[in-house]
Design a protein that fits this description.
The complex is a heterodimer of chains A (236) and B (255). Chain A has 236 residues and is of the alpha/beta class. Chain A has a single domain, classed as 3-Layer(aba) Sandwich (Rossmann fold). Chain A has eight helices and ten strands. In chain A, the strands form two sheets. In chain A, strands 6-7-8-3-9-10 form a six-stranded mixed β-sheet, with helices on both faces. Chain A has a four-stranded antiparallel β-sheet with strand order 2-1-4-5, covered by helices on one side. In chain A, α7 crosses α8. Chain A is globular and about 55 Å long. Chain A starts with a strand and ends with a helix. Chain B is 85% helix and 0% strand. Chain B is an all-alpha fold and 255 residues long. Classes of the chains: A alpha/beta (236), B mainly alpha (255).
Chain lengths: 236, 255
Amino acid sequence: MIRVEAVSKKFGKLQVLQQVDLICNSGECIALIGPNGCGKTTLIKSILNMVIPDSGRILVNEKDISGDYLYRSDIGYMPQIGRYPENMNVGQVIETIQTLRGTGKAVDTDLYDAYQMSQLLSKRMNTLSGGTRQKVSAVLAFMFNPGILILDEPTAGLDPLAAEILKEKIMAEMQRKKLVMITSHLLSELEDIVSEVVFMQDGSVAFHKSNAALKADTGKDSIAKAISHILREQAS
Amino acid sequence: MKKITRFVLTDILRNRIVIAYAVLMAVLSWTVFNMEDTGSKGVLTLLNIVLLVVPLVSVLFSTIYIYNSAEFIELLLSQPVKRPQIWLSLFGGLSISFIIAFALAVGLPLFLYADFHQAVILFATGCLLSAIFVALAFLAAIMSRDKAKGVGVSILLWLYFALLFDGLVLFLMFQFADYPIEKPMVLLSATSPLDLARILNLMQIDASAMMGYTGAIFKNYFGSGWGVVLSFGLLLAWALVPFWISLRIFKRKDL
């Protein structure tokens, strides 16, 4: 599980995160949504320690992450834009990560097989299309059976079939009591997998509700409608 | 840590530019020793080539390589790897491969033709200079996100140490010729790794006329034995301090 406590971050003069508090438990699938530039990716990068918060603390599996690095072995991360060394081929990238994560552990090859990665192994990363890179990112995120999955815009760039495969995989992982955190703008895609909705605005959490509570409170039948209802109410 | 270093090392040693650099240095050093009649003269000519080419190639290539590794660094950061380890492995990989290239290209003819004592010193300075300018590249690269700016800074660093510094020393010397400036001049020479390397080598060869002003004072002050130890220590500091500063920045950097 992840616990974010009063985390703030400034990039220069821009306050990107402002006193963010968030508790995510295992077995939940959390949708992190909000307008562009509201700090979703920065929050995710803070959890991964790629961005170091100015204040506040983050606990992953009950342990403070500052100064720690081993906690990341329990996180599978799929970045928004997968950037990989251009001169490596797919096989080398997977192999590198595998040696870093420790060989010998059983790997989850569901996505590897579903995306037919074995045919791509000798292709260099700079020749891959955006969607194929996303597939590589997805394969790497799920490969090592992490307890926490952080997916930043996972379906952007994926073709409908690949997106469907990924969705099924996410649901299967939720059955196994894993924590899944997803950011996406395609609210309709999240509809049937999300259990909690975290709405961020201007660097802070506007609300954190369960899917059902959100729909009940707004009287709408889908997340997309509920969110636009809330935004319209705010505007008026 | 070892895994990442090995990966970086194999990646660089296969790089065409590094191979071209090694071939160029090998051709130059074999030619120098075949043209000059005595080993000492050869060492002297080779020293001037080493002082010019080694820093330029190490600093430029490393800066560009670090910028191009941004994706690799990002990929590693989301894995259970210590942050300093990534930076250290990159530094290790880059400096080891430049030292290997230098050792194969220059080391071989050097030990074959030159006087053993002089060869050891030139070999050691070449290796240290490689590491020093790789370290300076890390400093230049961490200072800005913009690749063009970083590469510009690394070229300026090279230009300053290889050319401008000598001019500066000369200028100060003439300006303050009426004052006792020996001590400040020795200190000044410590602020340039290339000046230190030159003094260090020339102290071994009987060519005090070519040591320049700071060199003459250096020898006068420390004699050969202490001078060698001190300048080696200073050179080592020149490799470690810039890298250490860049490591401290990297630890807190947002990526």
